[in-house]
């Protein structure tokens, strides 16, 4: 029998296709049998094949993998020379073992029988990798970060100038504050913890909070520019004087800046600690909370004048005061009357207060060269009811400038 070449080729081709189909069917049946109730061929995790494992075996594999990772620190956080550790147990960090087992077991089992067979064949040929994720307690992590924050956070501390008995100035360095924002840290750690990528190492960068009074503000300060003392009797009025004066302690006024007495001392209320004492209201003696505070503003006014600073806002009393010469008082009232002055000197000035219990002294510290060798005196001309106040600027004992400040007119108290 003669068979043409074409016919022979078709027979060979059909035979080959039949063979391939037979092999494929046999292979599919073989794969299906091998994968019965086990993780299918080609599945691996962490560089290890887990094909052929049943669920219990896979659970042990993932548990062992998680435990080996969790032997390490979850995070090591550093700030300068300090190191902070977060352990997995601190945040209940754990591998999601059951989820990983189920994910591995579902491969090749989520479609129709034909789809599953194709998926299993594809996995056997090309492979598929399972990665276990993890969970942790977010509140526990927040608690850990708050502990670190509390260890790092530092309030800024102003530099301090302290007047010594010999007139020299001792300077205490300022402290830069630190504030650690933990929310970005928690957000950065989250994906690492959830993928069990530990140990996480991170440098902490707290925000720096410079104090208001820095070392540079005090650097050139070398002496007393001006001071003034007034006296008082102990008691409720004296307590008010001491309380108000304490708010002036350590006040810094930079070159070109102003200071408001009312702003720095604050409201004179019972809640603030002030007591009832003698005041003058509408030209009459009276008792009211905060009596005596005007003696503090008046003492400051005289110290400011003698230090070469510039009054911006000043009001005299209704009647002359007993604790300062006529025309050299400065009354204040919450929300109504303020005493404000400006620093025209090249360097900052700094207030310091001495209170002996019956005498108040306010010192204005600064850089003596700012006055260019000048000294200052105050004189009053006119009557005690109508005084005019002048500031005399002297150089080498000679008056080089006579500065008119103001003229006051006092009234007689109605109930004297």
From TrEMBL:
InterPro entries: Glycopeptide_resist_protein (IPR052913), Vancomycin_resist_VanW (IPR007391), YoaR-like_PG-bd (IPR022029). It holds the Pfam family PG_binding_4. Residues 86-186 form the YoaR-like putative peptidoglycan binding domain. It comes from the Bacteria. This is Vancomycin resistance protein YoaR, contains peptidoglycan-binding and VanW domains. It comes from Selenomonas ruminantium.
């Amino acid at each position: 029998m003669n068979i043409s070449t074409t016919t022979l080729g078709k027979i060979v081709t059909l035979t080959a296709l039949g063979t391939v189909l037979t092999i494929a069917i046999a292979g599919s049946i073989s794969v299906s049998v091998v994968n019965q109730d086990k993780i299918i061929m080609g599945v691996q995790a962490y560089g290890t094949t887990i094909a052929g494992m049943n669920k219990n075996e896979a659970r042990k594999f993932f548990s062992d993998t998680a435990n080996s990772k969790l032997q390490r620190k979850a995070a090591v956080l550093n700030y300068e020379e300090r190191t902070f550790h977060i352990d997995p147990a601190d945040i209940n960090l754990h591998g999601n073992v059951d989820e990983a087992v189920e994910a591995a077991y579902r491969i090749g089992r989520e479609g129709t029988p034909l789809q599953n067979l194709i998926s299993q064949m594809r996995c056997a040929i090309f492979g598929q990798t399972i990665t276990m994720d993890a969970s942790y307690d977010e509140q526990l992590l927040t608690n850990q970060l708050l502990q670190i924050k509390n260890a790092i956070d530092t309030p800024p501390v102003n530099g301090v100038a302290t007047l010594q008995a010999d007139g020299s100035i001792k300077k205490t360095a300022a402290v830069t504050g630190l504030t650690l924002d933990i929310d970005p840290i928690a957000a950065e750690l989250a994906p690492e913890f959830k993928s069990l990528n530990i140990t996480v190492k991170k440098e902490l960068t707290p925000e720096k909070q410079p104090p208001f009074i820095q070392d540079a503000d005090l650097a050139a300060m070398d002496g007393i520019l001006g001071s003034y003392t007034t006296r008082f009797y102990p008691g409720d009025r004296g307590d008010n004087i001491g309380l108000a004066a304490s708010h002036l302690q350590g006040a810094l006024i930079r070159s070109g800046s102003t200071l408001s007495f009312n702003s720095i001392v604050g409201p004179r209320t019972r809640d603030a600690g002030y007591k009832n004492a003698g005041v003058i209201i509408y030209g009459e003696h009276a008792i009211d909370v905060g009596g005596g505070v005007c003696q503090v503003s008046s003492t400051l006014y005289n110290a400011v004048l003698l230090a070469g600073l510039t009054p911006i806002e000043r009001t005299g009393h209704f009647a002359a005061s007993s604790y300062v010469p006529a025309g050299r008082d400065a009354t204040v009232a919450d929300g109504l009357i303020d005493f404000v002055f400006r620093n025209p000197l090249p360097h900052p000035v700094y207030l310091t207060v001495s209170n002996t219990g019956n005498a108040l002294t306010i010192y204005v510290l600064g850089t003596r060269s700012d006055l260019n060798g000048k000294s200052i005196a105050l004189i009053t001309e006119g009557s005690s009811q109508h005084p005019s106040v002048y500031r005399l600027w002297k150089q080498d004992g000679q008056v080089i400038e006579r500065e008119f400040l103001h003229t006051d007119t006092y009234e007689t108290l109605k109930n004297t």
